[in-house]
Amino acid sequence: MSMAADFGVTLTQHVLRKQSGHPDARGQFSQLLTQIGVAGKLISAQVRRAGLIELWGETGELNVQGEHVQRLDRIANDTFVEVLRRSGCVALMASEEEDDLVHVPEPMRGDYVVAFDPLDGSSNIDVNVSIGTIFAIYRRTDPETVSMADILRPGREQVAAGYIVYGSSTALVYSDGQTVDCFTLDPSCGEYFLTRENMRIPKASNVLSINECNEPYWPKWVGPYLAGIKARNDDAGRKVTSRHIGSLVADFHRNLVKGGVFLYPTEARTGRGKLRVLYECNPLAFIAEVAGGAATNGLTRILDLVPTGLHDRTGLVIGGIDEVERARECLDLYGV
Question: Does the domain formed by 4-196 have CATH 3.30.70.100?
Fold first, then answer.
């Protein structure tokens, strides 16, 4: 039996309802968000069938980052590109899986450019751990032409951002800069229904998300920062626990719902971060700030970074605003 009657508000209805109150929520903006939802449905269907139709494993290719491409990576990327190309809303795309920009033919171009990670956490595909899609939406800078400048922009210029988690259910979370709202896909009728409205990152951080096996590569400030968090667990009881999934989108979603902080610090030995500015950090930082949280690479607010290349990387601390501020304080005290 469908749960539609219980949930009530669909993604399309919600986007249209908010049009009058948002300067960018005109026809193409609403259509674009709806089409992203369509792409998510198609990818979700493939993820759920992966084991049955032998979509697990690698393609044998390496992407631009030198990582092995999973079969579902390629399917998710091609799906997202084709749905957005045909939407009539997008002029230009950048994908974590593509070496260069993805241009939309001129007659089909719309008002927006989109940067996306088609399948975040794909190393977890073979073991049935939650994975997801992350996207960032910008208005094109010139109504006549498109160029690299439309993509290489600070994250504060996003007009919307979101992600889709393929887990025990398929959830789509997006922000238009005003609120953060979550929709759950009802597979019985193929529609997303509003299940969490105006989400806020809880003040109390109950979860610490970090890969502690990377400790030999951490900068100096990370050890004292983590020690301070762990010291909250005392004889009176445990106040914080460790949860690290290894899919950024899934870790972030859990912390958004339950309260927590995620860290992937810049490596001390190289001075470089691991996570992509355009496809991962910018959209999640946008959502975090709208939800009352914050995001930094330790030195700079994520949304103030100006990328110089499509695949720039950075460190990331994201979560409750108090926890992110403590990270900055520890960096000031202990250095990199």
Answer: no
